[in-house]
Structure formats: structure tokens, C-alpha cells
Design goal:
Shape: globular
Largest sheet: 7 strands, parallel
CATH class of the largest domain: Alpha Beta
Strand content: 15-25%
Strand order of the largest sheet: 3-2-1-4-5-6-7
Number of domains: 3
Distance between the termini: 18 Å
Order of helices and strands: EHEEHEHHEHEHEEHEHEHEHEHEHHHHEE
Structural class: alpha/beta
Number of helices: 15
């Protein structure tokens, strides 16, 4: 199966580059899959990660993105084009961001099977938190972009509530729910010898300055530290694209507190040690922008989670059986109380850590990517069945009927480079694989 994965890709730091990397890593290890990453442009000084076929064919915040993507797709001629998208994947300026989101429907119209993994919905965005100056215009444009994305052959969202929103508002498209997955192939069991030795580390991770702000967390940390002094706060990550300079200002404000460390950007190779040594991960958000990558990172290393009481986080905990303790949104005292209760209870820390690690084992990236590939294969076979059915319904005297029958199998069914995909008997039965009665509408 030849796949083009459209995503921001390291060493780029644009939205979803980490998720794109882990998708690419798993796809590149699957037998029978030929992967090309269609990624965003890099500065000339940056070097590519070894071991991946990467075509840098679009640029963040540029209007020409759809045309450049289509040109590369036509040259590669894949069987599947898979878009890994958030609403701001192609830009922070409205026009380029919208233009990029038109690319999936243009890809489908060009004749390629197109799938979109959509990480957030415009309907769940808090525009005030996100720093949007023209919320009404953004909402209208976001709804139109969602209509276009639903025109792809298939679309995946990461929370069941998102699928419900799409169905109730748009009533179109073929939408599935796929778990976010943990961003490592194999989760690592928690190593409690690294935690609380000699101090407990409270970890906050993300892109800061809009709906993720540090000041409430620092206030809660300082209140809690008066009663529990064996603690340290680690703030990891960078400024949100719409809040440049935010971290530098906060760092200056709290420069005199040695218990607070600002780590900045954390390289992929440093993430395991950072999370393994954390006693708790805190998500002090004022709103949500989708299924949390930070929460899934915490699960991958068996780290307890404390989070704002937001509907998306509640659903995430319920759907994926995550151990999350909630505090009232923006309530410093509530956050401090939850932190203090957890750090004072080694038993609770272990129980939450083990529960999150167990949840991670159920949603490893190999398993999640395997679900996507199975779905692509199923849709491929359904397309072949429909084509065969149309041919059988045609008149027996239709010109070149026998020629079309002979060409139908290779055209629709040979997805890998060697033509080894199980075939279809044009009389209507599979030579191998699931029977038609086993085919489900959602997948």
C-alpha cells in the first residue's frame, strides 16, 4: 500500500509535528506499506531525520499550499493520502489556514483515496482563550472548512463527542472515532524509584500563552509548597504561536524562586527521562483544543494526572479509563488541594500510575495505526466490490466487457509494490479476507 502522509514533521515545530512523527514511524515499520511524508518546508540549515522518505512540499502560512501538495501527490500517485490535521495546521493567519484545509477535498477530486485525522473541531474552541480577534468570522470559516473536510473519503476524530457534534450539525461525511494513542510504540512501566527522590517533580508541558497559562499553576504550586516543601515545578514547552514572548515574561516574573524551572523545548530523546521522573503531570488549561497529547504522554510513562474540570478531559478519562483528578477551572485553591492530596499519598500515586500505564497498553501506536490500515484495506475492497457489481449489472453485450473484467482486479486490488494483496473473484466472492457480511459501515 503506497501512502502519502500530509503532516508537519520534525525537525519542524509546527502543530502536530510530534504526532506526525509517531504515525510515520509506525507506518514505516509496517510490511507492505510504502510511505512518503509530505511535510512543511524547513530552513536550509535543518537536516532531515534519517530513515524516512520526506518531501518538503508546503510552507506554513502560505496560500500556495494546496497546489504544491497536489503537484507532489500526482507525482507520487499513492493509493491513500492521509492528512494529520488541526485547524491551524497550515497557518495561524486565517487565509492560509483555510486554504490548506481545502487540500483534502481537492485530493479526493483528483482521484485519490483521502483520509483526514482531525484533532479538533471549531465548535469546541474557546475563541477568547485562543486569542482570536474576529470570532464570528472564524466560526463561519471554520464551519465551512469542516464541511470541506467531511468531503474526504473518510474522517477520524479522537473523541466520541466530536463525532456526535459532526453528525448533529453537518449530517454528512463518513466519520469514525479513533483513540489518540500513546506517542511511543511501547509504553514504559512507571519507575517509582525516580519519583520523590529527593523531591517530587510537578510537570507542566505544552505550548503556553493562550488557553494554557502558567500563572495559576505557579500560584497553586506556591500555596501547596508551604505545606509540602519537598517539591519542584518543571515547566516544559514553548510559546503558543499567538503568544510570542509569553514564556520569557513569566520566567522573569518568577526568576527568584529556585523551585521553579523553565525547560523550554524538550527534544524527543529527552521526553522519557522527563516523564519518568515526574510524580504528577498537571494540565492547568482554561479550555480544551481536543484530545490531549500531554495526557497520553503521561499515560505512556505511568504518570498520575491532575487537570482542569473540562468536558473534553472528563470524556477522555471515561472513554480511555485514565486516572485523572480534576480541579475547578481557574481555581488556584482547588488545584493546590488536589496536588497536596496526591503528593501526600504514595498509595494513590501508585494506583493512578498503574491505571494510566494499563490504559496506555490498550492504545499503543502500533495498534492505532493498525486500525487505520485495516480501515483503508476494507474500503479498498468495498470499492472493488462496488465496481464489480456495476460491471455485472451491465449488459452482456457491452463492448470490451471481458477486457474490463481482466483489468478490474489489478486496478483496484494491488496495493503493495509486489501485487500480493488478496484478490477478488469477479463472480462476487473474496478469495481471502472478510466476507461482505462482515463489513461494517463505520470502518
Amino acid at each position: 500500500m503506497k501512502i502519502c502522509l500530509v503532516t508537519a514533521f520534525p525537525p519542524s515545530r509546527h502543530p502536530l509535528n510530534e504526532y506526525g512523527f509517531h504515525l510515520a514511524r509506525e507506518l514505516s515499520q509496517k510490511p507492505g506499506v510504502s510511505l512518503t511524508v509530505l511535510a512543511d518546508d524547513l530552513p536550509s540549515s535543518a537536516s532531515e531525520l534519517p530513515g524516512y522518505s520526506v518531501v518538503r512540499c508546503w510552507r506554513f502560512d502560505r496560500m500556495a499550499t494546496p497546489l504544491r501538495l497536489l503537484k507532489s501527490i500526482r507525482q507520487i500517485h499513492p493509493q491513500v493520502v492521509w492528512y494529520n490535521l488541526a485547524l491551524a495546521s497550515f497557518g495561524v493567519r486565517p487565509a492560509p489556514a483555510f486554504a490548506g484545509l481545502v487540500a483534502p477535498v481537492l485530493t479526493r477530486l483528483s482521484g485519490h483515496y483521502t483520509h483526514v485525522t482531525l484533532h479538533q473541531l471549531i465548535e469546541t474552541v474557546d475563541f477568547e482563550d485562543a486569542g482570536v480577534k474576529m470570532p464570528r468570522l472564524y466560526r463561519v470559516a471554520g464551519s465551512l472548512a469542516t464541511h470541506l473536510l467531511l468531503s474526504a473519503n473518510s474522517l477520524s476524530v479522537l473523541l466520541p463527542a466530536y463525532r456526535q457534534i459532526l453528525w448533529e450539525k453537518y449530517r454528512r461525511g463518513r466519520v469514525s472515532v479513533r483513540p489518540h494513542g500513546v506517542l511511543f510504540g511501547r509504553p514504559e512501566a512507571p519507575d517509582f524509584s525516580r519519583r520523590g527522590n529527593p523531591v517530587h517533580r510537578v510537570l507542566a508541558f505544552g505550548k503556553w500563552g493562550t488557553y494554557k497559562r502558567i500563572e495559576p499553576l505557579v500560584a497553586a504550586f506556591q500555596n501547596m509548597a508551604e505545606q509540602f516543601p519537598w517539591v519542584q515545578l518543571l515547566v516544559a514547552g514553548e510559546d503558543h504561536p499567538k503568544a510570542r514572548g509569553y514564556l520569557a515574561d513569566v520566567r522573569k516574573e518568577f526568576a527568584n524562586d529556585p523551585r521553579i524551572q523553565f525547560l523550554g523545548y524538550v527534544a524527543e530523546s529527552e521526553i522519557p527521562l522527563l516523564f519518568q521522573s515526574a510524580s504528577v503531570a498537571v494540565m492547568p488549561y482554561s479550555s480544551s483544543a481536543g484530545s490531549s497529547g500531554v495526557a497520553h504522554l503521561a499515560c505512556a510513562y505511568g504518570v498520575p494526572i491532575i487537570a482542569s474540570d473540562i468536558a473534553d478531559f472528563r470524556e477522555l478519562a471515561d472513554e480511555e479509563c485514565l486516572a485523572i483528578e480534576f480541579f475547578r477551572v481557574g481555581d488556584v485553591e482547588s488545584m493546590a488541594e488536589q496536588l497536596l492530596n496526591l503528593l501526600r499519598s504514595p498509595e494513590k500515586q501508585r494506583a493512578m500510575a498503574q491505571q494510566n500505564f494499563s490504559a496506555a497498553l490498550q492504545m499503543s501506536m502500533p495498534a492505532i495505526v493498525g486500525q487505520y490500515l485495516s480501515s483503508f484495506q476494507m474500503q479498498h475492497r468495498l470499492s472493488a466490490l462496488k465496481a464489480a457489481a456495476r460491471l455485472r449489472k451491465g449488459s452482456l453485450w457491452f463492448p470490451f466487457r471481458s477486457t474490463q473484467e481482466r483489468s478490474l482486479g489489478p486496478k483496484f486490488l494491488h496495493w503493495d509494490a509486489h501485487g500480493e494483496e488478496p484478490g477478488l473473484n469477479l463472480k462476487g466472492t473474496f478469495e481471502s479476507g472478510p466476507l461482505p457480511s462482515e463489513v461494517h459501515g463505520d470502518d
